[in-house]
């Protein structure tokens, strides 16, 4: 197996999805699996579907196209408001997209009419994260405009929390969001099919004591992939946090004298030196660096310390005997590290635990992506 590589335990991703699906189901909430952190990897997406996700979502059309190219026919939603220049691709590959701009919706409608299709629109509402979203006071008006357009169909509304401002939603905010769902139906008439309450940061609310009201969907990426709740970083009870492992190879071992004074006045070096070893440090280097992942998002092997990293080298210190030259060192990753590693061209993705739980109608065309080990 080549290094560096990300090992993916598909069974754990399936189980994590199942766990969340089974906890949210009784509260009337379905799970949409978010694939952006794994760049729309088709087999990982399929593990989410096998675990009970009702559909997939991604922020980038390139990732959606990768899923479609692998033969996935399940519904895929674009959860970042489309680029005006990509309307054509979005109508082609996504059943539904999240939208905040009337001009974009108009372009999607025109494209859909040309293709003889109807594109689903979910209106993203700004509920306090201050990223993308229509202001609540403008929502009813925009919803009415969408209702009157041909080529598009209003499918629902969505909220998003904790992305830009890092704050988990409060019960009050979620109640306000549910009120908006009722208000839109009051104005527009039809039943809103999708009332999507947010992302993994909504889980404490969704599984907490408050009623979940009109919310019938959550879009979950981090919780499924890493088993953690993003705001606190805490492990979610009963979930696997080790579905992904980053493996890199040792290319140098031994000791180095303490850094010279010259190196220490170099601000770039100082910034990257995480742990300042005193005197002679026992250390080793693995062939992986900033170009491959977010080094600060890796958990170091037990007993070792991150000394520093450059674009292609990761220097680790340890008190005992370092691992031998040519051996492999294993790291767990946080969301940032995972996202970068999955997108890095020199990192191979190795899939483990790929025995399907049950035959799926979604498997055709994916065989080329499997690397059974
Ligand atoms: C990334 C994203 C998600 C998924 O977030 P997680 O924290 O990974 O669950 C959901 N919705 C939107 C709009 C996103 O951008």
How does this model look, in words?
- Pfam families: Ala_racemase_N.
- This is Alanine racemase.
- Residues 8-224 form the Alanine racemase N-terminal domain.
- Keywords: Isomerase, Pyridoxal phosphate.
- One of its GO terms (molecular function) is alanine racemase activity.
- The protein is α/β, with parallel strands linked by helices and 373 residues long.
- It has two domains: 10-226, Alanine racemase (TIM Barrel, Alpha-Beta Barrel), CATH 3.20.20; 244-352, no CATH class.
- It is 31% helix and 23% strand.
- It has twelve helices and 16 strands.
- It has helices spanning 10-24, 42-50, 61-69, 87-93, 102-115, 136-148, 171-188, 203-206, 222-226, 261-265, 267-272, 335-343, and strands spanning 5-9, 30-34, 55-58, 76-78, 96-99, 119-125, 152-159, 194-196, 217-220, 244-256, 281-286, 298-299, 305-309, 314-317, 328-333, 348-352.
- The strands form two sheets. Strands 1, 10, 11, 12, 13, 14, 15 and 16 form an eight-stranded mixed sheet that branches.
- Helix 1 crosses helix 2 (42-50).
- Bound molecules: pyridoxal-5'-phosphate (PLP).
- Residues 34, 36, 59, 79, 160, 199-200, 219-223, 230 line the site of pyridoxal-5'-phosphate.
- Residues 34, 36, 59, 79, 160, 199-200, 219-223, 230 line the site of pyridoxal-5'-phosphate (PLP).
């Amino acid at each position: 197996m080549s290094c560096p590589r990300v090992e993916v335990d598909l069974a754990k991703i399936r189980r994590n999805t199942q766990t969340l699906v089974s906890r949210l189901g009784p509260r009337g909430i379905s799970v949409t699996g978010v694939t952006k952190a794994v760049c729309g990897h088709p087999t990982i997406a399929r593990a989410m579907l096998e675990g009970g996700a009702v559909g997939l979502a991604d922020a980038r059309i390139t990732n959606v196209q990768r899923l479609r190219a692998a033969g996935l026919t399940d519904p895929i939603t674009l959860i970042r408001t489309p680029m005006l220049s990509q309307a054509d691709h979005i109508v082609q590959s996504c059943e539904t997209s999240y939208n905040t701009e009337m001009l974009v919706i108009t372009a999607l409608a025109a494209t859909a009419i040309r293709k003889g299709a109807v594109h689903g629109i979910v209106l993203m509402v700004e509920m306090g994260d201050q990223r993308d979203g229509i202001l609540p006071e403008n929502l009813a008006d925009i919803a009415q405009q969408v209702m009157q357009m041909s080529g598009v169909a209003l499918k629902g509304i969505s909220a998003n929390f904790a992305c830009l401002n890092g704050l988990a939603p409060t019960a009050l905010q979620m109640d306000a969001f549910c009120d908006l769902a009722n208000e839109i139906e009051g104005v527009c008439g039809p039943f809103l099919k999708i009332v999507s309450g947010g992302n993994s940061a909504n889980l404490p609310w969704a599984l907490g004591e408050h009623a979940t009201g009109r919310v019938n969907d959550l879009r979950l990426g981090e919780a499924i992939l890493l088993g953690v709740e993003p705001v606190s970083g805490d492990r979610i009870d009963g979930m696997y946090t080790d579905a992904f492992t980053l493996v890199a190879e040792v290319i140098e071992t031994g000791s180095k004298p303490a850094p010279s004074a010259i190196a220490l006045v170099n601000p770039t070096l100082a910034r990257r030196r995480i742990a300042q070893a005193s005197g002679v440090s026992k250390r080793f280097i693995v062939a992986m660096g900033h170009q491959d992942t977010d080094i600060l998002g890796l958990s170091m092997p037990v007993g070792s310390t991150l000394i520093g990293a450059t674009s292609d080298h990761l220097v680790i210190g340890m008190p005992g005997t370092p691992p031998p030259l040519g051996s492999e060192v294993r790291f767990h990753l946080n969301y940032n590290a995972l996202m970068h590693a999955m997108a890095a061209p020199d990192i191979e993705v190795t899939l483990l635990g790929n025995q399907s739980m049950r035959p799926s109608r979604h498997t055709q065309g994916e065989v080329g992506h499997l690397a059974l080990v």
